[in-house]
Amino acid sequence: MTGSWTETEKSSTLTIPCNGVVHVVEFSPYVWSDKVLAFGTDSNVCVGLCNFQEDHPEGGYEFESLRVFPHNVSRLTAFAWSPETSLATVPQLLRFCVTGNNFKLMLFTSYLADDDAVKVIEGHTEYVNSIAFDPDSGRRMASVSDDCTCRLWDLDGEELVRFSLASPGMSVKWHLKEMQKLMVAERHGSIRIFSLDTERIVASLRATSGTAVLLTADWCPTNPNLLCAGIDSTWHVWDITKSSQPISSHAYQKSVRHIRWGISDSSLLAIGDWRTKQLIVYSLRSPRPVLMAPLPVLSSAPCWHHRFPIVAIGTDRNIHIWSLQKR
Fold first, then answer.
1. Quick one: average pLDDT of 100-121?
2. The whole model's pTM is what?
3. Which of 145, 235, 124, 141 lies closest to 187, judged by CA?
């Protein structure tokens, strides 16, 4: 698809009402399960199918609840889909991991028939800020925490590898094209890529000095050379083949709390700011935002649909969804 992005209306295209404050919301990022959407509240995780019209996703949708998973955590802090999730196989399988204020990972597995299984994984001693699955087999998970560690786990909850960090870990990411590498972003502003073969650092990036704080980072899903991060009131983009310094930096009015790279179009970046209560979408091809949506409250990070330029975010007891269009 070519052309520039048109500026989208502030009001959302679609809204899904929820029975509780939405702390996490995630489309499955995998092509074989990209209709699956999950959101987590204070009491449960709801998983359903979000069907958009193929040619005109902005024209309508249907959300069908598949399963509700109760949990005993008052506030979820991170969510990750397993690539093993599939509704096209027999038996059908849902698998995901969440974490919250109990510092534990909770691995849920459901075959949508009998009782669901949950594996509680202990080890972290502070809040877990980010989780990721090995995108190839889904048999390993990575997590980063305020306890200044990045840990790898198997699905039985055994700790496989532990990396010590210089400050709290804020984001962790595997890449489909670089499956033996792991991106870890730390609060003090460094982003490092570890080789899981050698357990050594193969790339190190930094854009801060002094007291600047990194709260969020992401790895471009279509280009493993590109990374982004929000550090205080600036968001940065790196090309690791060119320099350890950012190739572009963009000042922003307030703090960048969440940043997510578009999946269907890697020129798009979604930023969530809890202070100004806005969702902002930028295109790397345009100096002006594609979307600036003030909302009553932002209660989750934004997420992207796998096939369509559709972005969603939790706002208190609703999920708001926007479909972006090109000229």
1. 94
2. 0.93
3. 145
